[in-house]
Design a protein that fits this description.
The chain is mainly α and about 210 residues long. It has two domains: about 10-80, no CATH class; about 100-200. Helix content is about 70%, strand content about 5%. It has seven helices and two strands, in the order αββαααααα. It has helices at about 15-35, 50-75, 80-100, 100-125, 130-135, 140-170, 170-195; strands at about 40-45, 45-50. Strands 1-2 form a two-stranded antiparallel sheet. Helix 4 (about 100-125) runs antiparallel to helix 6. The termini are far apart. Pfam families: IspA. Its main location: membrane. It is a multi-pass membrane protein. Belongs to the YciB family. Plays a role in cell envelope biogenesis, maintenance of cell envelope integrity and membrane homeostasis.
């Protein structure tokens, strides 16, 4: 069978459902592990670790395996996925090494803060770097991208500040729930709202603009 007959499975062909499972599965597994282990403590090499830290360490290979499968099946990973993986490894490792859960909690602040910073740099240059990574999935005129980028930059900055306030002032239980469900829900609702609000800027198929 030749490679060009289109019947051979090749990278880039991945079902949307499997893609969502590989992207959303690791955070959900972290949540399940945390709920399962949160009331226990574990001793390794003479050091006692909380259930949160054990769940954090277990999350690292789960995330890396999911990303490896996603890359193998789709042939690509977004810059955001790579950055998130690097931060999870670094801050998850620091959490375990120093036996301090604060490092893993700060990881979320850094992810949101970096996103706000990158979008802000693009805006200062008169560009929408968001359009650079999303234009194919969401065809829209430049004016629309600039509006969405400004708003999303602000939302990421607010989420970064919100996470810092949150992890410093609430229980680990509540922080894990907000991290797993609250922040993704906020972003989902915000993006859905913006897609509806920016319909006048959308490029319809067949539009020559």
């Amino acid at each position: 069978m030749t490679q060009g007959d289109g019947s051979e499975e090749r990278p880039g062909k991945i079902s949307p459902v499997l893609k969502q499972v590989l992207e959303l599965g690791p955070p959900l597994l972290f949540f399940v592990l945390y709920i399962w282990l949160r009331d226990e403590s574990y001793v390794f090499a003479g050091t006692e670790y909380s259930g949160f830290i054990v769940a954090t360490v277990a999350f690292i290979p789960i995330l890396l395996l999911a990303m490896a499968l996603l890359w193998r099946l789709s042939g690509t990973l977004s810059r955001m996925q790579i950055l998130t993986a690097v931060l999870v490894v670094v801050f998850g490792g620091l959490t375990a090494w120093l036996n301090d859960e604060r490092f893993f909690k700060m990881k979320t602040t850094i992810v949101f803060g970096l996103m706000a910073l990158l979008l802000g740099i693009g805006l200062l240059r008169g560009q929408s770097w968001l359009a650079y990574v999303m234009a194919e999935a969401l065809p829209m005129r430049r004016e629309g991208w600039m509006i969405l980028t400004r708003r999303l930059c602000l939302v990421f900055a607010l989420l970064a500040v919100g996470n810092e306030v949150l992890w410093r002032s609430v229980s680990t239980d509540l922080w894990v729930k907000v991290e797993t469900f609250g922040f993704p829900l906020i972003l989902f609702v915000f993006l859905w709202w913006q897609i509806m609000a920016l319909q006048p800027y959308m490029i319809e198929s067949g539009d020559d603009t």
